[in-house]
C-alpha cells in the first residue's frame, strides 16, 4: 500500500491522502469477502486515479462480471486489449466468459479459441477448454436464424463498437448511438444486427419515416429476421399505423425463439407495444441469472408487472434493476416515466 504524505503543513498535522493502490487493495479485500458493491466502489476509484493501469481495469471488469454487468465488463476488457496488446491475453478468456453469460455462444466460442491460440500456457487453459465444450453443445442445439448466421471474423475493433452502441441505446442516448453505429456500418456493412440497432436509434431520435423505410427495405431483403419484425411492430405502434402493426403483432405472437437474448428482446417488445399480458408470460420463461446484466430486463419486466397490477413484484424488479445497474437509480420507475426507454 502506498500513501502520499505532505510534511509541509501547519500544526504538525500530516494528512492521509490515499493513492490508487490503496483504493485497489481495499477493493480486493471487499471482493474476497464477496462484498461486490463495495469492491466496485473502491476499484473504480483506483481505476479513475490511475486509468493507465491495466491491472486495475481487469479487476474492475471481473467485479462487473460478478454483479452481472457483462457488457460493461467487456467494454473494459476490449479497451485493455486495444491499449496493451499481447500483454494481457487473459482478457480474451474473460470476454468469452461474459459472452457465454449473455447467451452469445458464437462470440464466446470465438474468444475462447483466440485465448487458447494466443496463450497456450495461460492460467485459464482448463477453463477455456471446458467452456468451449459447453458452447459447442449449446450451439448444436440452437436453430440459427438469418441474423445469427453472421459470425464475427473481423478484427477485435468491432467488439468495441458493438458494446459502445449497446450501452448508448440502453441509456437512450440516441445521437451518440447513431454516430457509433454509422461508423461501425461503414467499416462492417454486412453486420445486420447493427443495421437494426441503427434504425431503432434513428426512430427514437425523431427520424421516424426514415427509420421505417430502411427497416422495411431490410426486412424485404431478409424476411427471416426476427429483429426486423420486432422493430417494425414498435415503429408502427408508435406511428399509429395500426393495420401494419396488427400484421406484425400476429407474426410475433407465433414466434418462440430459442436464444435467451432473442427471448428477452421479444418480451421487451411486447411490453413496449402495450401487450403486457403476453410480455409478462414471456418474461416468466426467461433465465434471470443469464439476463440480469441487461437493464431492459428489469425495466420492461417491472413495467409489465405493474400494468397487470402485480405491484409488489414490479417494485421488487425495479429495486433489483437499480442494484444491478446503478444508472437506473436516476430514472423514474417505468410506469411513471412518460418517455420511451429501450
Automatic annotation (TrEMBL):
What is the residue range of the signal peptide feature? Answer: none
Is Cell division tagged as a keyword? Answer: no
Keywords, A to Z, come to: TPR repeat
Tree of life domain: Bacteria
- Does the UniProt entry include the keyword Metal-binding? no
Recorded hits in InterPro entries, A to Z, give:
TPR-like_helical_dom_sf (IPR011990), TPR_rpt (IPR019734)
**Alphabetized Pfam families for the sequence:** TPR_16 (PF13432)
Ranges: TPR repeats: 20-53
Q: What is this protein called?
A: Tetratricopeptide repeat protein
**Organism from which the protein derives:** Saliterribacillus persicus
